[in-house]
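Batch job 17 of 40 flagged for manual review because the log was empty.
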Amino acid sequence: MRLFRHQVKTEQRLFWRSREAAVFVFLFPILLFALLTAVYNGRIEGRPAALGLLAGMIGYGAANTAFSGLAITLVTRRELGILKRIRATPLPPAVYLTSVIVSIMIVYAIQVASLFALGHLLKSTPWPSNLLSLIPALALGAATFAALGLAITGFIRSVEGSSAVLNVIVLPMAFLTGAFGPTRHYPQVLRAIGAVLPLKYLLDLIKGIYLHGQQFWDKPLAVAMLVGWGLFGMAVALRTFRWEPREG
C-alpha cells in the first residue's frame, strides 16, 4: 500500500508538471463550459441552459480525462520505452497501472469540482444536492472510460497520432450524445448512433441526478450499459495492451 501511495503521488506530480496535460486534459472542458455558457441561452431539458451545459461538460470531462488523458499518457510512455523499463523494476505492473488510473481519477474529481465552482460563480448554478448518487455515477463513468482508454492504446501506433485519433473519437461522441447541447434536431441516423455510445448513458445518469433530482438506481439501463462498456474495454485491453514500443 505504501508503494501504491508513493506511485500515485509521483503520477500526480508528473501530470501537473506537464503543461500539455494541464491544458488539454484538465482545462479544456472548463474552458469549453465558459465559452458555451457565454453564447448559449434558453433551456435544456426544462432547466436553464447553464445547468444542462454544466452536466454535459462533466460528462465530456470523463471522456476527455479518463479516456483521452489516460490513453495519451500510456501511449507516450510505451513508445518512449518507459513502460518497458518499468516492467524491469520491482514495481509490480498491476500496481503501476492502478496508480496511473487512480491519479487520472483524482484529476477528474478536481475537474468536476472546478466545473461546479465555475458554474456557481458565472451563472449561479446550484451545488449538487445528492452527492450519494452523483459520486457513484461519476466514478462509474470515469472507470468505464478508463477501461476504454486502456483498450484503445493497443490500436494507436505512435505518439504523434494519439491526439488526433482520440479527438476523432471523443469530439464527435460529445456532439452526438448531447454533451454540447440538445440533439433533438439531429437527423435520426445521428441520434441512433449517439444512443449506443457510452457517453450517452453517463450523461443520462448525470442529468437525471443533477437536473431532475433522481437517484443513481433510478437509471438501471444507464448503469448496466456503462458497466457493459467498461467490461468490454477491459476485455479488449487484456488482449491488446502492450508494454513495449511497436516495431516499425
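Reviewer: the log was empty due to a logging misconfiguration, but the result itself is present. Residues 2-240 form one domain. Unflagging and moving on to job 18.
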